[in-house]
Write a structure and sequence with these properties.
Radius of gyration: 25 Å
Largest sheet: 9 strands, mixed
Strand content: 25-35%
Bound molecules: glycyl-adenosine-5'-phosphate
Strand order of the largest sheet: 3-9-10-16-15-14-13-11-12
Shape: globular
Structural class: alpha+beta
């Protein structure tokens, strides 16, 4: 399915849609609807579980921070994109996107280089055709008017400025893994493709503080899966993170550990491993704080899209906050090292929608969501709206809902249409009450992907619902 198909489905069935549409919309802002908001929470909960299993702790810090924080972190000075504004129609463009759309492979590190490239290729405004010149640096942070306060462009700084509190909490034991999920804000020059580049978005960030190279033993990832790696010299590999470390493709055991972890996490969400790759940044592309970065990208609609960035931030942030605040940030005499897997929740969400949406041979559309991610776990239908089947189905729906509230009831249209409506939103299991139910108390359970049906006693089904999804998945294992 195309990107447009996903956007159409999302709007029609309540996953996401552009914000403020009654006022004509506002570029770069999206709302999650009734199904999307639950699904987004399911993704976040899966991420929390994956990192709680690593012994991580979680924090929740303000989205507004004093300018001092971003002066120290380098964001005031360096968190900018090169932009070009058409002097005729006044449309502003992100320079990098302009080059990408024209398939120009060159990169500019500063506005002088950008101006030369504009001249060299005689680049024109895509909207009105006027020649483009005079690029400028555009800081991506939103400032609160008349105050030295900013909306955070990443959640990470809320963790770094709390390092001493967190160290105290963890009794100074390293490695210390601290996570935060929350909104980030960037005044993107050209927001695009729905959830891909927004001005307000959700990050799930992990800051891993450690003090020696042995903290993440390579042995623990020895049996890890092979994954697609694209090095910054253009070489493509399909090897495990362990092999990437052993052969010097990846620089540190910690980086290898979190490349392996991120790949396993993304695969566990139902993303096709073959459509995932980790791409190494070139030195020019890296953020100002990073000494090594690997972006996890997902292939959607003929384009690789970054969904998670893993950076080696070494001791950059803690040293800068130590210097700016005068507070000691050391542990046993040295400043800890930091590896940061930073997840873009919205982009992961969109990747799942994109990767899971397909058309069956009969033309019906299906959203093949993993049961853990599906916003609706079960749908209950009466086969007919007569002969007491509807009242029995409603009673069963009420009983199931008391155990698992992520459930839907539908009695309108043919049974085929009802299955199709649920398949399209990714409901994992449909439960149908039919004439046999009146005789023996059994119902049919239909699994979305195989369309297979099993008869189950409703009392057994109630017990199974307490153990969703494992009990239901097991029912369909041959
Ligand atoms: N703390 C590191 C950091 O913020 P980043 O690569 O700038 O690194 C991390 O962002 C992730 O956040 C990206 O991989 C992407 O998935 C997501 N992200 C960044 N900017 C975004 C935007 N404007 N809209 C949606 N997601 C965005």
């Amino acid at each position: 399915m195309t990107f447009e198909d996903v956007v159409e489905l999302s709007k029609r069935r309540g996953f996401f849609w552009p914000s403020y549409s009654i006022y004509g919309g506002s570029s770069g802002f999206y709302d999650y609807g009734p199904l999307g908001s639950v699904m987004k929470d399911n993704i976040i909960n899966a991420w929390k579980r994956a990192y709680a299993a690593e012994g991580a702790v979680f924090v929740d810090t303000p989205v507004i921070s004093p300018g001092e924080v971003f002066r120290a972190s380098g964001h005031l000075e360096k968190f900018s994109d090169i932009a070009v504004k058409c002097s005729n129609c006044k449309t502003a463009y992100k320079f990098e996107s302009l080059l990408k759309n024209l398939d120009i492979k060159e990169m500019a590190e500063n506005t002088d280089q950008a101006d030369s490239i504009l001249l060299k290729y005689r680049i024109k405004c895509p909207k009105c055709g006027s020649p483009l010149n005079n690029s400028y640096n555009f800081n991506l942070m939103f400032r609160i008017e008349n105050e030295f306060l900013y909306l955070r462009p990443e959640t990470a700084q809320g963790i770094f400025v709390n390092f001493k509190n967190l160290l105290n909490y963890s009794r100074s034991v390293l490695p210390l893994i601290v996570c935060q999920v929350g909104k980030g804000f960037r005044n993107e020059i050209s927001p695009r493709q729905a959830l891909i580049r927004m001005r307000e978005f959700t990050q799930a960030e992990v800051e891993v503080f450690y003090d020696n190279a042995d903290s993440f033993s390579p042995d623990s990832i020895k049996n890890g899966p092979a994954l697609n790696l694209l090095r910054n010299n253009g070489e493509s590999l399909n090897i495990s993170a362990f092999e990437a470390l052993s052969s010097g493709v990846v620089n540190s055991p910690a980086m290898a550990y979190f490349i392996n972890k991120t790949f396993m996490f993304l695969s566990s969400l139902g993303l096709d491993p073959a459509a995932i790759r980790a791409r190494e940044h070139s030195p020019e592309e890296r953020a100002h704080y990073s000494s090594e970065t690997w972006d996890f990208e997902f292939f959607m609609d003929s384009e690789w899209i970054e969904i998670v960035g893993i950076s080696d931030r070494n001791s950059y942030d803690l040293s800068r906050h130590r210097d700016a605040s005068g507070q000691d940030m050391s542990v046993n005499g040295s400043i800890p090292h930091v590896i940061e897997p930073s997840h873009g929740v919205d982009r992961i969400f969109l990747s799942i929608m994109n990767g899971c949406y397909y058309r069956r041979e009969n033309g019906y559309k299906v959203l093949k969501l993993r049961p853990e991610i599906s916003p609706v776990h079960f749908a209950v239908f009466p086969l007919q709206r007569k002969d007491g089947l509807d009242s029995t189905a409603r009673d069963m729906f009420t009983a199931l809902k008391a155990i698992d509230p992520f459930i839907f009831y539908d009695e309108s249209g043919t049974i085929g249409r009802r299955y199709a409506r649920q398949d399209e939103i990714g409901t994992s299991f449909c439960i149908t009450v039919d004439y046999q139910t009146r005789d023996d108390g059994t119902v049919t359970v239909r699994e979305r992907d195989s369309s297979k049906q099993k008869r189950v006693d409703f009392r057994v089904l109630l017990e199974m619902a307490r153990n969703y999804p494992a009990s239901f998945t097991a029912l369909f294992v041959e």
